[in-house]
Amino acid sequence: MLESVLIANRGEIACRIIRTAQRLGMRTIAVYSEADAEALFVQMADEAHLIGPPPARESYLQIDRIIEVAKRTKAASIHPGYGFLSERAEFAEACAANGIVFVGPPASAIKAMGLKDAAKALVQQAGVPVVPGYHGAKQDPDFLRQKAYEIGYPVLIKAVAGGGGKGMRRVEKAADFDAALESAQREAASAFGDPRVLVEKYILSPRHIEIQVFADSHGNVVHLFERDCSLQRRHQKVIEEAPAPGMPPEMRDVMGRAAVEAARAVGYVGAGTVEFIADGREGLRPDRFYFMEMNTRLQVEHPVTELITGLDLVELQFRAASGETLPFSQEDIAIDGHAVEARLYAEDPEKEFLPSTGKLWALEFPEGEGIRIDTGVEAGAEVTPYYDPMIAKVIAHGATREEALDRLAEALGQTIVAGPKTNAAFLKKLCEAEGFRAGQFDTGFIDRNLHALGVGPQPRDDVAVSFGAAALISREIERLRMTELQKSDEPSSPWSNPDGFQLLGARSVGVPLLVDGERVDAREVFSPEHQGASTVAFGESDPWADEEIDQEVEAPHGVYILRNGRQTLVQPYDPFDVDLEHMDEGGLVKAPMHGKLIAVFVQPGDKVEKGQRLAVVEAMKMEHVLVAPSDAEVTEIAAEPGAQVAEGARLIVLKTEE
């Protein structure tokens, strides 16, 4: 076994690797950016070393800097995790050149599978079916547009390099092709340093099914069955499960053998995933699946495979990198039950899943039979705009799919996060969705059911506001009481008592608030019928009803009320504390999150139509297009492309046409 390992990654996967490495008796070495100085993985590692500023290109993507730390600390190996440098052949080569074991496949395998066009040609030679499309080198826009026409719409534009849904656009009609191509190429260049794309036929009713493969350096290759990753949004996986619902044994066998052949074709070593798209119009059939790509690394969703096989894939990675032979054959591996994983993200489903940043004022996960939590943060940590906004992977295992989904839904309902908005309620609804439960889904399931899943603006939770206002009032009363006690040792008179003292009758006092940034008014109600008690009335809520909340979390700037998986921030309103720079004047287009303004498509004096593209903001490795809210004239461009912008910053000012 290797004596030590440097983890060239951060967050959840760094914590995951450290746990297994330390169990195996290995010395663990973390590298971190300035933004991660207090991160959980830094605390867990035996030693940690700063490698640069927060932007990944200046820290986690700095090969020379990471190799230098590995040499200085005498690291026997480097584990790249997933993302960042995990699929960069030059990183594997740099490790080899410096006598450091790369815990992953050979650089030659990474190169062979790193470019989707070349990978498809390679696996075709091995007899693996591929999706019809153009996988060549020519990148002229007119040529690609013609190829899309020949293939037939809808088509999928995909970055040749990389993965994770970046540089990928579905195009329904020819009129949308040019804009989609430009956006895909720009995002691909930003994420992978390579703007090249391929164009493929979009498979209707597609199921995204992948096969986990594992190989040692002695020529042994096995598959560890399949995972279904069809529940996606913007080509990003949301919920993954193993095994795939409705998978016939003969199809599992055919797909497994195809994946093994793909791995053999490139001399693969270690953990890898061969991804397929299956045509699910008439159920899963062994003659209707196509190779998409091979991820030459550990996958985010590997825990579901671990739970149904009883294997530790990170341990197997270390053993393969040490030159050990696989301790089992294909016949030794069996499926045990069902496992489902949900990706808990700091994002707001009520605002089109915009990333949400900030301090985690509370973070609690449930414990119980069949529940596993993989996380890289803890209460008090900061979710920054620099990296992927994943908070945790919530995973459930059960004897049946129904039991696993029940456990996952319950676990999501018991998860407590205060600070950044999350998709917890959305994930719980997904687990409970009738079509998904029945196995009637494909990669378009989420888009077709957005409203039912609670996506988009939702009615304000009046009960949560009432609880929050009551908490603020209690806090202010306690502050005033302590102030009075500090002023005098004598008991204060009832006339100076701040708790709403009254002599006769019922009365109420106005309470100005900010609720999720919006100015509202609640009322503190004093009632003789309730022994002079007070409560808060707001909206349609009954101030004396026996309502419940999940949790109340205090923060210096307000109170977070968690109820039914949703979060409401209630703050005291100070009319003298207004951010005039970021006030919504009706014609103001603001940055929806912290990020980089990468493109502006208009200039002062331009007339724009409702829905027209105005600008693009890049945050957490994804592009977010800003569009005109109505027909208007552009009067001001307040930020230059390339600028880092804060959430709420003025970008474009519009004058609405009369």
UniProtKB/TrEMBL annotation:
Keywords: ATP-binding, Biotin, Ligase, Nucleotide-binding
Coiled-coil residues: none
Gene3D superfamilies, per the entry: 2.40.50.100, 3.30.700.40, ATP-grasp fold, B domain
Cofactor dependence: biotin
One Pfam assignment: Biotin_carb_C
Domain ATP-grasp: residue ranges: 120-322
Domain of life: Bacteria
Keyword ATP-binding: yes
InterPro entries, A to Z: ATP-grasp, BC-like_N, Biotin_BS, Biotin_carboxylase_complex, Biotin_carboxylation_dom, Biotin_COase_C, Biotin_lipoyl, CPAse_ATP-bd
Domain Biotin carboxylation span(s) in chain numbering: 1-451
Residue ranges of every copy of the Lipoyl-binding domain listed in the record: 578-655
Keyword Endoplasmic reticulum among UniProt keywords: no
Designated name of the protein: Acetyl/propionyl/methylcrotonyl-CoA carboxylase subunit alpha
